[in-house]
Amino acid sequence: MEFATEFIQKVNGRLVELLSHAKVDACDFGIVNPLQEGYSYAVKDGGKRIRPMSVYLGALSTGIEIDKAKNDALVDLACMVELVHSYSLVHDDLPAMDNDDYRRGKLSTHKKYGEANGILIGDGLLTLAMVVGLNLNHGEDFVRGAGYIAKGAFNMVTGQALDLADGTKNYLDVYTLKTAELISNSFAAGSTLMGASDDMVRLAKEYGHHLGLAFQLADDLLDDGTEVSLVSEKGREYVVALLNEETEKAINCAKTLSESELLTSFATNLLKRTK
Predict the structure, then answer these.
(1) Residue 102's beta-bridge partner residues?
(2) DSSP per residue, the chain
(3) Structure confidence by residue, pLDDT tens digits, 17-45
(4) Is the distance from CB of 60 to CB of 38 less than 8 angstroms?
(5) Cα separation, 178 vs 157, whole angstroms
(6) Stated pTM of the model
(7) pLDDT digits (tens, 9 = 90+) for 200-236
């Protein structure tokens, strides 16, 4: 999306830099890192970068000016959440999880590099995300913001466990934890980095929560009917009504924040996407 084009370009460049450290760190011991190529494969060409944009929008929602130091810190927070998201997709595709052979039009990571390496590549990406989040050079607000992303990642794992569990499941619980929590905490992270008040962070997080739920509901509606989901359980009409409700809640939250028009536009455009 155009408002974040320059920011996302910086995020992509920083991701390349961070992933190169995996090679450099191994070379410090005279060792060739066998996972290096896999890390880049899993992260590059990484979709829409919705979660990094959520970090940036969280900062914009405060109305506080973003100077160079804050922008650099936001880029690192955005990289942190994208590394978390990338690891989750690598593991989600594994045979023990969703057992998917393809991701974004190419072989999934474990099909390209083997199941064991797929597990390790995901582990490495998550660990690198935590290393990025512990960069004390960006200050206390950065670490607090990183804490939100770590919380979102932890809840995402719980959501995956609920999704894999046998028996009847509450899909809204799954969607809240597996999808919405990482998005909502990305908004909170960006807002926190800017030194926003607790109330402002809460509102940004609430906007992200409703947006994240709507995002997953819209994703369900794009399915061709072969996947087990809330659509297959409750029907398209029910999910469309719920999508509209969550979208309206997100837009109402946006009205309480700075850059409300941008936040509203982000929500409506994101939810109009097609496969």
Answers:
(1) 107
(2) -GGGHHHHHHHHHHHHHHHHHHHHHHHTTT---TTHHHHHHHHSS-TT-HHHHHHHHHHHTTT----HHHHHHHHHHHHHHHHHHHHHHHHHTSTTTT--SEETTEE-HHHHH-HHHHHHHHHHHHHHHHHHHT-GGG-HHHHHHHHHHHHHHHHHHHHHHHHHSSS---HHHHHIIIIIHHHHHHHHHHHHHTT--HHHHHHHHHHHHHHHHHHHHHHHHHS-S-S-SHHHHH-HHHHHHHHHHHHHHHHHHHTTSTTHHHHHHHHHHHTT---
(3) 999 876 656 556 677 788 989 999 999 87
(4) no
(5) 7
(6) 0.94
(7) 999 999 999 999 999 999 999 987 666 788 998 899 9
Q: What are phi and psi of 102, to 5 degrees?
A: -130, 150
2-197 folds as: Farnesyl Diphosphate Synthase (1.10.600)
pLDDT in tens, 245-260: 999 999 999 999 999 9
Paired residues of 106 in beta bridges: 103
Domain ranges of the chain: 2-197
Q: How many residues does the chain have?
A: 275
**Tokens 């370009």 sit on residue:** 9
Write the CA distances from 268 to 7, 140, 232, 261, integer angstroms.
Answer: 21, 34, 24, 11
Burial 224-261 (b: 16+ CB within 10 A, else e): eeeeebbbeeeeeeebeebbeebbebbbebbeebbbee
Angle between helices 115-133 and 68-92 (to 10 degrees): 160
Closest CA to 122 of 158, 86, 93, 146: 86
